[in-house]
Write a structure and sequence with these properties.
Blueprint (H helix, E strand, L loop, with lengths): L5 E6 L3 E8 L2 E9 L7 H13 L7 E6 L10 H16 L6 E3 L5 E2 L8 H4 L3 H12 L4 E7 L4 E7 L2 E2 L6 H7 L2 E2 L14 E4 L2 E4 L8 H7 L20 H11 L9 H29 L7 E5 L6 H5 L7 E3 H4 L8 H9 L1 H14 L1
Parallel strand pairs: 1-4, 4-5, 7-13, 13-14
Antiparallel strand pairs: 1-2, 2-3, 5-6, 7-8, 8-9, 8-10, 11-12
């Protein structure tokens, strides 16, 4: 009997990440924008797109994880877990119901999710870290997954994850979860002041711009990963991006040259790097690793990794796509999407490894 394909799903509050495994190798990975806080119809739309992209969905196996239960569409996280599990099961309309990742507790059929929702809630980071630790079983290091909204900083050693926290609340306390990313984070969340024209000035604490504006202007954020609306609903070209940055410091874009606005973007970049590095240093202090420890990067913000870890005493850095995931080809575009969709790839890979 031929080995069935396995699809991995990571249902977030702003995006859905998914991948397709054939014979244990990743052959496709994709991210769809999905503003779940605006209604479950957005998840239904994504699942219709998935059926169009992958006609064999119904006969395959499916492994899922989620973080979308946190959105304010739901009264509480338990409701979110239950409703997301139910909608994914209904929307996939598959021969064999999906299984939901519960970390150390194992895999849950849809009818068991309600009873153990806490094991299923926000476990996507654990899937990525567990897959990384198991694959690099003789190494120690830290997974740095810089996404559109959040950053996960998870230590691993001897084939095991060495996290101090399990829930989002616990991980916020241990610095293993940082609510900053390279697309959706409001710029005013990066710090109260910024260097501008030789001065350190206060910034406007308004939702005028996001980190996507910074990395769009520096040229580091690929357009394919720039899927969320802008803060003002305007265009994503350079002129509109400079105007949003200008508002943050009380100006209009016409008040400075384009080179000055690029320097402004770089100043915001330095602020974010400093914050993420400080959080990473706290994780490393709490989870001391040997001298050969390395960093494994993932997420659409992995372009920050070299500058993030350069001052730290680590052996080096690499990517989840090249060091952990099993790719069916050396296609650079596939590797890029595997980086972005690491939790979906991880949950599919863990399920595949356990069952075949």
């Amino acid at each position: 009997m031929p080995r069935p394909e396995v699809y991995g799903w990571d249902i977030g509050g702003a995006h859905v990440k998914a991948c397709r495994l054939h014979q244990g190798e990743v052959v496709d990975a994709v991210q769809w924008a999905c503003p779940l806080w605006r209604g479950e119809q957005h998840l239904a739309q994504v699942l219709r797109a998935a059926h169009a992209r992958w006609p064999r969905l119904r006969t395959a196996l499916h492994a899922a994880t989620m973080t979308g239960e946190m959105v304010d569409l739901f009264a509480h996280r338990q409701e979110g877990v239950e409703r997301i599990a139910a909608q994914l099961t209904e929307g996939l309309d598959v021969e064999r119901a999906p299984r939901f990742y519960g970390g150390e507790a194992g895999w849950y059929a849809p009818e068991r999710v309600a009873a153990d929702w806490e094991a299923v809630a926000s476990a996507n980071w654990l899937a990525t870290a567990t897959h990384t630790a198991a694959t690099l079983a003789t190494d120690s290091g830290v997974l740095v997954d810089i996404g559109s909204t959040t950053t996960d900083l998870i230590a691993f050693a001897a084939g095991h994850v060495r996290q101090a926290g399990r829930t989002d609340a616990q991980r916020l306390a241990t610095s293993e979860l940082v609510y900053q990313g390279v697309v959706r984070t409001p710029l005013c969340a990066l710090g109260p002041r910024i260097d501008w024209r030789g001065q350190c000035i206060n910034v406007m604490n308004e939702f005028f711009a996001t980190t996507a504006d910074v990395y769009r202007l520096t040229g580091e954020l690929p357009p394919a990963h720039d899927q969320q609306p802008t803060a003002d609903g305007a265009a994503k070209d350079a002129a509109a991006t400079r105007q949003r940055l200008a508002r943050m410091v009380g100006h209009d874009a016409r008040d400075a040259q384009s080179g000055e606005w690029l320097e402004c973007a770089r100043a915001w970049r330095r602020l974010q790097l400093a914050e993420l590095r400080g959080q990473l240093e706290r994780v490393l202090a709490a989870q001391p690793l040997d001298r050969g420890a390395r960093v494994v990067g993932a997420g659409c913000g992995d372009f920050l990794l070299p500058d993030l870890v350069a001052p730290l005493a680590l052996a080096g850095s690499g990517s989840y796509a090249t060091q952990v995931a099993r790719l069916a080809s050396d296609d650079a575009d596939l590797a890029g999407w595997v980086q972005v969709c690491a939790p979906a790839v991880a949950v599919a890979s863990l399920f595949d490894l356990e069952h075949f």
